[in-house]
Amino acid sequence: MADTVTKDRKTQITEAAQNMFREKGYSATSMRDLAARIGIEPASLYSHIRSKEEILHTICFRIAEEFFKSIKDVTTSTESADIKLEKAIVSHVEVIKNNADAFAVFYNDWRHLSEPVLSEFISARREYENIFRGIIQEGLEDGIFKPMDVKFTVLTLFSSLNWLYHWFKPSGKMNPKEIGGNLSNMILYGMMNK
Amino acid sequence: MADTVTKDRKTQITEAAQNMFREKGYSATSMRDLAARIGIEPASLYSHIRSKEEILHTICFRIAEEFFKSIKDVTTSTESADIKLEKAIVSHVEVIKNNADAFAVFYNDWRHLSEPVLSEFISARREYENIFRGIIQEGLEDGIFKPMDVKFTVLTLFSSLNWLYHWFKPSGKMNPKEIGGNLSNMILYGMMNK
DNA sequence: CCTACCGATCGGTAGG
DNA sequence: CCTACCGATCGGTAGG
What would the mean pLDDT of A152-173 be, rounded to a whole number? Predict the structure, then answer.
């Protein structure tokens, strides 16, 4: 019981931070706010974390990792590009759904990371985007997709996926498979040759 | 010459703020940073503005106004829903293109507005979104668009429009009509019946 | 538009 | 995990 019910302090700090950063933004959330939410003194936070930015770092890179993990099956698959793309979209939506608060922080506050971590973050994100670029490129070469600008399309695709965190409430029972399916349908229809 | 070359201080402050808020976010930009950029003492800012939030207020509501102005022709038009939607999209993209910095602030930092202005902002935004909802609803009833969830579709639509500010550089000569056309093509193709 | 300055709050440390 | 506290910085005002 202890293990599942009593979260360790560090987890507790991170989860409270995810929620507060999402609500007010990283810069506008103070360590005092955060400590108060947890019910300890501000200075006590530093027994568990090194700095405010470390929390942001933890959140951003954990989500990045989730994205890579979730898309792994797709990258090794040999299916056609449209099927792969749909699967990649559903995976992406699933990560957002399962980490709505953390994703919001990842999405909105990553720029408050400082170097060298910032560059690391940016290149991880680019790497992830490249997986999608690759799928689209492949579909283009196979003639499955109409001619289009890949970079532009990928960014449009992500932008229509990434707002979804507004939609998912922790209590919500919306189905990522359904939403991802609808979304990729809406997108693929405009992208499929015929 | 004086009128066009020498901007009054208030304009200068607002423009510098748009750029800095966009770059670092509203909360992370200090009035001292802002004053330094302009080359005056921090206290001197207050001869021209009442508060930091007033600047944010000015930016956000000016952009809101631009959006309403730009879509006016569309709302009074009697064309079919798909044509109206495309025009609305192009107008929207045009506003973003002509106000990239200010739009970024409008889009990312509106939540730092405080009441009662915050509620006013939210309802203005809803009103604008309702114009798009209306067009889609109409196209739905006319059978031009496939059956779909209007609210979901409008949000997806906006999300794929609103990331465009990352794209537009002040020096850039990208054509909003082209981009808006492409985008609405990509979207409409998935939305048109057949 | 400046000098001088306010009280509040910031992230964080020392030392226990 | 707390008390006590640091220097830095915040938005903003008084008064000229």
Answer: 88
Residue B23: phi and psi, rounded to 5, are -70, -45
B174 touches chain A (CB under 8 A): no
Residue B160's CB: how many other CB atoms inside 10 A? 23
Distances (CA, A) of A3 to A8, A45, B26, B179: 9, 21, 40, 53
Same domain (yes/no): B87, B133:
yes
pTM: 0.91
pLDDT band, residue B5 (cuts 50/70/90): low
The reply to whether B127 and B39 lie within a common domain is no
In percent, the amount of chain B with pLDDT more than 70 equals 94
Number of domains into which chain A is organized: 2
Return d(Cα B157, Cα B93) in angstroms, integer: 12
| Whole-angstrom distance, CA of residue B62 vs CA of residue B102 | 9
* Residue A40 belongs to domain spanning: 1-49
Nearest nucleotide by C1' from B50 CA?
A: D12
Domain end residue (candidates: A10, A34, A49): A49
Q: Does the beta carbon of A183 lie under 8 angstroms from any beta carbon of chain B? A: yes
What is the CATH classification number for the domain harbouring B103? 1.10.357.10
Estimate in Å the CA A47 to C1' D2 gap, whole number.
11
What contacts 24+ positions apart, CB below 8 Å, involve B52-57? B53/B112, B53/B113, B53/B114, B55/B13, B55/B14, B55/B17, B56/B17, B56/B21, B56/B26, B56/B105, B56/B109, B56/B110, B56/B112, B56/B113, B57/B113, B57/B117
B43 lies in the same domain as B65: no
Q: How far is A159 from chain B (nearest CA, A)?
A: 5
Nucleotide closest in space to B12 (CA vs C1'): C1
Residues A96-121 pLDDT 10s? 999 999 999 999 999 999 999 999 99
Separation between Cα atoms, residue A139 and residue B104, nearest integer Å: 33
| Residue numbers in A near B112 (CB within 8 A) | 25, 28
Tokens of A71: 């898309």
| Domain co-membership, A45 together with A56 | no
pLDDT in tens, B156-172: 999 999 999 998 877 77
- Do B23 and B65 fall within a single domain? no
- CATH number of the domain where residue B16 is located: 1.10.10.60
